[in-house]
## 1
Amino acid sequence: SLSAVAVNNRYVVTGSRDETIQIYDMKKKIEHGALLQHNGTITCLEFYGTAHLLSGAEDGLICIWNTKRWECLKSIKAHKGHVTSLSIHPSGKLALSVGTDKTLRTWNLVEGRSAFIKNLKQNAHIIKWSPDGERYVTVITSKVDIYKLDTASITGTITTEKRISSLRFITDSILAIAGDDEIIRFYSCDSQKCLCEFKAHENRIKDIYSFEREGQHVIVTASSDGYIKMWNLDLNKIKDVPSLLCEVNTKARLTCLAVWLDQASEMKENSDKAATLSQGNEDEKSSIVRKNKVCRTDKSVKAAKKKREITPEKQKSEAPLQKKKKKQNSSS
């Protein structure tokens, strides 16, 4: 079964109990290959921008991947037990992780080393940065502790009746919390008060995701009942129950959820509406440049598929070839 899923503008990656990370190219709609570095169930995956992916697993490792060549840049022995969750700061300079060794660890991603270790009274299974990076939250069973970045101290605690399975920042100060019941609750990080709650599913909610598109806030929920539902959230009327936009019965026992947005086509639609002819030509040139870049990386990916892992010697031999191609492309 799948244990983790993450998306960026091009790829979807999934982690599983089979100890592999599978990559899917959403632009070409093809399987892209597999990453084999962990010895244990993959527990968490998170992209940073378009160039990096972090993975954590039950082997206690956190791996940092370059998503251009899909090579492991660094493998860190992060926890003595399992890595249960990780989260990257919006700046990309820090990451937080929690594990079954009752620690919360801060990582300096610039230097790839441990920056700080905080002992927890119990094992936390979720860690998450706020969008502005000013605070972060940990989840221990049914309790959410809210921390401030500058003091690294707890500023408030939210407690629910049942175990929390998923948590999402809707804004910098509003949390959506889902757990081992059918109810989604919105909480204020400042007052720790419940702003709204509503029954979303007929069974426990496994994951919750949110995104903003064309000024509309959308929440997506997945449940053990097999349903994926999309809800429209009006932030100006946060106390009102969100309206159901659509639902689909997958007839599967859902375990995790992520939303991939076709941002390239959305950007193209927007530019077509607003852009002048000259701007349209510029967009066309930039998209051609992007296509050229993609073509260059495809060869190394095919090599990675065949060997499942690229050897350092292969990387060195491919690097000068790529430089030549870059020169040819620039001269053309």
## 2
Amino acid sequence: MDYPITRHPEFRYKTEFQSHEPEFDYLKSLEIEEKINKIRWCQTANGALFLLSTNDKTIKFWKVQEKKVKKISEMNVDPSKAVGNGSVASSSNSSAPKPYLANGGCTDRLHNSSGNDFSIPAGGFPSLRLPVVTSAETSLVARCRRVYAHAHDYHINSISNNSDGETFISADDLRINLWNLEISNQSFNIVDVKPGNMEDLTEVITSAEFHPNQCNMLAYSSSKGSIRLIDLRQSALCDSHAKLFEEQEAPGSRSFFTEIIASISDIKFAKDGRYLLSRDYMTLKLWDINMDSGPVSTFQVHEYLRPKLCDLYENDSIFDKFECCLSGDGSRVATGSYSNLFRVFGCSPGSTEATTLEASKNPMRRFVPHSSLSPCTP
């Protein structure tokens, strides 16, 4: 919105930094990869950028800010009298009487400092010359403000910051925790789907997202294709949901792959919080949070792969996860696919827009027919 509609936004390199390092959990004898699972922007302040990043176990809160690097171009040392490693030659004589200070201290260490590179001549400097400081170019510096660790037994799949600017959630397969940005050693468990007996486990949490405007509302999806909307005002532990969104399968359509491809890999709220977008293996679904009877729109993403589900299961491609997003004005939705391709659909009433774009270094957009999509390289 900052530019006319004819101009496309251009992204240029800004900076980079190492967020996570490989770790080893000695209690569980488990290697923790440095691979980043999620990144979320936080509210900016004083021209600095703030973001949350997480790997499988540890969440970090980063501040990225421009810093001016100052350099000293001239020292208060007369170059003509410099000797050795930049020190000034001393004219003091070892046989000369040692000057004493009024309180009884001796300045002998100032005159004869054989262990130091710098010495002050007898009588001091005739004049004080201050260093001349020149400011060089500005550089972006990333600093880790907080580390939120040791709160998840399973791999973290989601983080989402709250609209209140003070809290955020992190989710793994069985639990969702609520954090305060300023408190790194304490979190509150608000959702726990772990059964008493793990053999009774039927579904896991796959994604979680805060409502963009209502700080008390959040949604999370499951491997069974359902989305639950919960209200933090109801209870401290949100065992029950305010609303449940799931699509009933058509009679006779169930197969071995039905539950696998129904698993939701990502959910996103629209900017106004009215609609919720979900992504499963085959489709994108747009939900109205005021209507839990079914999705208002369904967009076919991988329908051409339906005859190949057996092959996809054998090479584990059927378990690949894809993310989704909505445009700022809510008129389009997008999701990733295979072979560096992503799909864009129009979701305005009456829209039939369905575009396939390729993510490449060449910004020219071109149409790619479905037959060229291959599930070999997610």
## 3
Amino acid sequence: MALSTPLSQMSVALPIGIDGSSRSMIKVQSVSFTEKSCGPLLRLDTVSRKLSLKKRSTVCMSLQQQASRSKVSVTPLELEDPKETPINLYRPKEPYTAKIVSVERIVGSQAPGETCHIVIDHDGKVPYWEGQSYGVIPPGENPKKPGAPHNVRLYSIASTRYGDSFDGKTASLCVRRAQYYDPETGKEDPSKAGVCSNFLCNAKPGDKVQITGPSGKVMLLPEEDPKATHIMIATGTGVAPFRGYLRRMFMEDVPTFKFDGLAWLFLGVANSDSLLYDEEFSSYLKDYPENFRYDKALSREEKNKKGGKMYVQDKIEEYSDEIFKLLDDGAHIYFCGLKGMMPGIQDTLKRVAEERGESWEQKLSQLRKNKQWHVEVY
């Protein structure tokens, strides 16, 4: 979205302060855009977004901008029309060449590792639905197959079908940079770093990126019942599809989808600096308290009831009675994140079921039969 007004005539709130504890605000008059407004107030976080007003001629909605009750218009609404899920429009042998719009580090300095929010411009040629994935083929040669390209890496899409600019031309990925540290020396070994994640996290605006897909149906958001309950359980970057769900529910003005149910997000990360899209989710909690719940499990900062580290399964156990009742009433439950999250969660659910005098195996079978159980782990 290009700015149609000089910066001197804009109303921009700039938070000043490294730790966010003390913020000063600079205000000027009004803001308008050539196409559509990004909302009543544009917030540009000078620390987390590292945005230079001198260098940028366009401004899209910040990741940390408030999601107010005044929802954002989206286009083209034709993206609501197809009855069939878009699947594998582009395959590994003939990928689509997209462009990087932006790469943004979205974790604090105390987070273990680096996670980036990456916006990709597909020019509307690779449409997708919430809950699907893109494949990315990093540049270079596959070391195990000389002369052949790298294998496709799948990433859950972290935006709605309209993208972060609400025009149906971009998709966003949430990517953690894969790094390897020698257990003996403690030093990083670049030769064993993740090829695709490092390519994406190092990318610059305008860089080309080959994508495939979209793929996947198991995590599609069921929209037949706008009053349904959706329980979302994520670890780390597994929150990606849920960001798409929640933006569709609470941020975007979609005429054919008016959500009036309950969305409940459980997010497990290492510490407060590792929280992903926290300001976005917290704004929904403020604006839609009857429709959204948000629980965090910070393993390095919190203790569970037994005195151990607080993991997402401990939060599930804490609210187990409510969760089981909601599942009995038809709620959908989703899991996304590392494969290692599932054994602990399954053990917790089995233990809770047995305490309730139920067979977890039978209950799980029924949830799958009713299409209430959605799992995507990697």
## 4
Amino acid sequence: MDYKSSLIQDGNPMENLEKQLICPICLEMFTKPVVILPCQHNLCRKCANDIFQAANPYWTNRSGSVSVSGGRFRCPSCRHEVIMDRHGVYGLQRNLLVENIIDIYKQECSSRPLQKGSHPMCKEHEDEKINIYCLTCEVPTCSMCKVFGAHQACEVAPLQSVFQGQKTELSNCISMLVAGNDRVQTIITQLEDSCRVTKENSRQVKEELSRKFDALYAILDEKKSELLQRITQEQEEKLSFIEALIQQYREQLDKSTKLVETAIQSLDEPGGAIFLLSAKKLIKSIVEASKGCQLGKTEQGFENMDYFTLDLEHIADTLRAIDFGTDYL
């Protein structure tokens, strides 16, 4: 707080000094002890403690126990947040310079004569100072108004007592409002933290869910490859067997075709002797070739692959039923 520059700029140094010594909470001159915050703003320790207690209702201490750790305090001037230790406001440093300035200021004020016109005057009685407060009409007035004027039947009280009472009430309202603002700010901070944690937790569970489904995809792909390989192996074995039979039958067919051609040529032979020389052997070969037609065959339904069919409906139902918090074991 640069008191010197502030005083030089103002035409009335004492009046400007008084403004610099006003507590932002109670709006009165600082009451000792005066504490200074890390943001360099000053407060009456009592006012600061009232706000701190309102913002941290479960913090007591000063031998009233309950204080496990410190709490949070927000400067009413700049809203800077201060983290208190277990001593609370009593752990803040006292501003002895400001306290000394207050003492000097009060001594200076007490030695100065009261300036004319510094006290408001009654509108009805221009020579009378306003020195009492009408409780009935709730307005400040003068003694003459009470004795001879409009407030004869009203209840009045000393101006200073009402002044102090209303200042105290206003200070309490300010403290309540500041404390309420601190609580609201705390709630906002907590909600913002909740948003951040919610987003982080959502990201983590999404990643975990994706990993589990990727693992399922991998298992399905592996099983699919395994089953397709078994079908392919069975297909190759059957095709190999069928192709071998085809080759055997083709060889038998070629042999039979040649025998037929040879037999037809023998039938065209005009000479009986020549025909008889080869006929016997030829007939024997044809008979043997006819017996050889009984080669291997495929069984009925040999080409059927239905036994590789899968019934996955129950697994599909299980997959459709996948949901959070369900045990599938």
